[in-house]
Amino acid sequence: MVLCEMVRKSVRDKGAAPKRGPGRPRSFDPEVALVHVQSAFWNRGYSATSLDDLAAATGLNRPSLYTAFGDKQALYMAALNKSRAEAGRALLEALAPDEPLRQCLERVFSLAAQMYMRGDVGQRGCFLVGTAVTEAVADANIRHALCIALDNLDKAFEQRFRRASQAGELAADADIPALAKLATATLNGMAIRARAGADAKTLAQLAKGFVASTCGAARSQTKPVKPRVASTSPRKGVL
């Protein structure tokens, strides 16, 4: 990417800028650097990613990384919070269109599967599931951030299911909070299998099972839900 190359060049090319005072870091775009930090952790995990790996991924030296983000843990937490915000925003937007619940869920899981199967070195699933779960046992900060991320996904699904319930698309006795957690668990399961190399058909089977069990027992509609034309692609983000 042109912008990323400009960032790297600004750091490497010592002759491109006047001399700076001792300890004064060269300027760069922290947001661009964080994208590469996120990618490095996503591919290798927290423990296996060294500061040298992060420096190589961003094209920045260690002092510049420390100045912008702090130590390795701070770098990871910045990447984790970025992923958490992206995932929550993407899911809310994907669930927003006014359309039948089955159609909505099928589209959400399809979009998630497409993202989980991407990666510059292989299918890497979800950043949160692929990296934070391992570290959450020993690191309270990571565990807390992971809990917040999962809770946010649950709440997004719960809001959508309540809308569906009000429209008569779910059984009267449907346990909406439980359905929301199962929806999140389905996303997590798809992410794990994608990281393990599962193909699109396998991920689709997982999604199909959840959608069928959720929408199959829906009550007949007294008034059919009229879907509106809406964008099928959420903004940039990681479900």
Quick rundown:
The chain is an all-alpha fold and 239 residues long.
Describe this structure in words.
This protein has 239 residues and is mainly alpha-helical. It has a domain at 80-215: Tetracycline Repressor, domain 2 (Orthogonal Bundle). Helices cover 64% and strands 0% of the residues. Residues 1-25 and 217-238 have low confidence and may be disordered.
Tally of extended strands?
A: 0
Average predicted local confidence, pLDDT:
83
Number of helices: 10
Radius of gyration, in angstroms, nearest whole number: 21 Å
- Pick out the low-confidence regions: 1-25, 217-238
Tags for this model:
single chain; 10 helices; Tetracycline Repressor, domain 2; 239 residues; mainly alpha; 64% helix
Summarize the SSE layout with pairings.
Blueprint: H1 2-12, H2 30-44, H3 51-58, H4 62-69, H5 72-95, H6 101-116, H7 127-135, H8 140-166, H9 176-195, H10 200-215
